[in-house]
Amino acid sequence: MNKLIVSALFGSMVFAPLAMAAPGNGGKAGCMQGRGEFPQMQMMQELDLSDAQQAQVRDIMQQYRGKGAMKQQDQPKQQGQRGQAMYQQRMAIISSAKFDEAAAQALIAEQAERHQSMMVNHLHAQQQVYQILTPEQQQKYQQLHADRMEKHQRFMAKGQKKAQL
């Protein structure tokens, strides 16, 4: 089970940046269709935020983007270099005559740490945004989130049925 989780995490860490960097049709391709940069932003549009709340959300998102050590304009170049370095490490592990488990574990640990840090920052931003909502908006947010989770579960179940065929 742990190997499956690590494999899934590893795969998402390696291929997600490539998928995000791939040219699309105006940002409306793939699973992020119509969602914008943050999937939660679509839900924010459905909550009828006031102008003041919208400004606060923008400030939080800018703060979230600024959490990394890099400036926004340097990010694509740095991500590309980091992705290339990880790709080279991965290829060195794969192509070596003898499997180096320590190198594989180190690469996976580095990716997991980076992913964990990113997720903590993302959850922190989401929590801050949630706190600026009115109680009615919070209730609607929770309902929208539950609806999306139900839709996601149906999608995953459909995929599992196809995989069994």
Structure report:
This protein has helices spanning 2-21, 39-46, 51-65, 75-95, 101-131, 135-164. By secondary structure, it is mainly α. It has 6 helices and no strands. Residues 4-37 and 69-74 have low confidence and may be disordered. The protein is flat and about 60 Å long. Belongs to the CpxP/Spy family. Keywords: Periplasm, Signal. It is found in: Periplasm.
Q: What is the SS-derived class?
A: mainly alpha
Whole-number radius of gyration? 19 Å
Task: Let me know the largest β-sheet.
Answer: none
Q: How confident is the prediction overall: mean pLDDT?
A: 75
How many strands in all?
A: 0
Q: Percent range for helical residues?
A: over 70%
The succession of helices and strands, N to C, reads HHHHHH
Question: Distance N terminus to C terminus?
Answer: 23 Å
Morphology: flat
Unreliable sequence segments: 4-37, 69-74
Number of helices: 6
Our estimate of the beta-strand percent is: under 5%
InterPro entries: Cpx_auxiliary_protein, LTXXQ
Protein name: Stress adaptor protein CpxP
Subcellular location: Periplasm
Family: Belongs to the CpxP/Spy family.
Summarize the structure.
Keywords: Periplasm, Signal. The protein is mostly helical.
Fold topology:
Blueprint: H1 2-21, H2 39-46, H3 51-65, H4 75-95, H5 101-131, H6 135-164
Helix pairs in contact: 1-5, 3-5, 4-5
Structure characteristics:
165 residues; signal; periplasm; mainly alpha; Stress adaptor protein CpxP; flat; LTXXQ; 6 helices; Cpx_auxiliary_protein
